[in-house]
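User: I'm preparing a small set of examples for a lab meeting where we compare how different chains pack in three dimensions. I only have the primary sequence for this one, and I'd like the structure in token form so I can line it up with the others. Please keep the answer compact; I'll paste it straight into my notes.
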Amino acid sequence: MNLIVAVDKNWAIGKENKLLVSIPADMKFFRQETTGKVVVMGRKTLESFPGGLPLKNRTNIVLTRDKNYQAKGAVIVHTLEELLKELEKYPAEEVYCIGGESIYRLLLPYCDTAHITKIDYGYEADRYFPNLDESGEWEVTASSEEQTYFDLEYRFVKYVRKAK
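Assistant: Understood. Below is the structure token output for the 164-residue chain.
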């Protein structure tokens, strides 16, 4: 399974159920990576999308403890076990975990590729992603040239879990 996330220099990912910043090239990369694939997210992430609607041209799977939760156009699961059973239907390389924080933390052990947009700025935040540079389990296999959006510098970094 893959994961895809944009983090600031402190590995922060969001505040008050919103992204820290919207960088057009990052949004384009996200669309290119996930269109036609399976995206796994939590309820709050789905609700943060425009209109609270699932992403177009993707299979949307939402993990929530709320047994009554429904979202038109999304597959709803309520436990990790139920999610893993659902994911057996798809090739692992076509599944992307897209957040939020608790879903990333829950699914990180099941992921082997991480697409991280690293933004060289520290935001005020209340949600964080685990620091892969400190974990020892991940290695950088690709990194883009530094890019800029107005005064923000960022790069696209691909991490792969080290073989055990």
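A couple of notes for your slides: The chain has five helices and twelve strands. The first helix runs from residue 24 to 34.

User: Perfect, thanks.
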